[in-house]
Specification:
Strand order of the largest sheet: 1-4-3-5-2-6
Shape: globular
Structural class: alpha/beta
Largest sheet: 6 strands, mixed
Strand content: 5-15%
């Protein structure tokens, strides 16, 4: 097994955008983003979000337990966006799409936890910001976003029934539009 080292850095949405603009995309270029939820841990199991130790535990899980070559690209909680597998390399997150898509894991179980209020809403806002950033940086159409459960080789309903794809896409489009208008504002 050839493990791809993790990045292990966390960012606010604004700092994540700066980070993404600093990357060079010449070895691998994704075609779309696949959205996941962790299921476990739930938001209740991570009352203060993820820590670096949690990220290191996930690295051990994917590398040592699962024997994968990498993991998802991002872990998104209600406080921050964690970069796990380097965004400029393919990751492991969805059977059919590992070589095609960026994989974003949202902390929570959105088959039972809310995605429209409380901490779930904060995760949603951070996920929308991360999707908008990478769609902008890579020139991806937000309408190409896929939910993990759409992978024909997946057997579970990830990211959960409370994640409504069309709503997420609409929010990404709106944020990209707002950011674009901001670039042309007269000050």
């Amino acid at each position: 097994m050839n493990w791809k080292p993790i990045v292990g850095l966390s960012f606010s949405p604004a700092d994540f955008e700066k980070y993404c603009h600093s990357l060079v995309w010449n070895a691998w270029r994704p075609s779309f983003i696949a959205l996941h939820n962790t299921g476990s841990p739930t938001l209740a199991q991570r009352p203060k979000g993820l820590t670096l130790q949690h990220i290191k535990n996930l690295e051990s899980y994917y590398r040592d337990t699962n024997k994968w070559s990498a993991g998802p690209h991002l872990f998104i909680d209600d406080r921050q966006i964690w970069v796990f597998t380097p965004l400029t390399m393919s990751g492991v997150h969805s059977p059919s799409w590992n070589k095609l898509a960026l994989g974003f894991e949202m902390v929570g179980d959105y088959s039972t936890e809310s995605f429209s209020s409380g901490r779930g809403l904060e995760v949603r806002k951070n996920a929308v910001a991360a999707i908008a950033t990478l769609c902008g940086v890579l020139g991806l159409d937000p309408h190409t976003l896929k939910l993990h459960k759409e992978d024909p080789k997946t057997t579970h309903a990830c990211p959960g029934k409370n994640v409504i794809k069309n709503e997420v896409i609409a929010e990404v489009v709106q944020l990209m539009h707002e950011r674009h208008l901001g670039e042309h504002a007269i000050t």
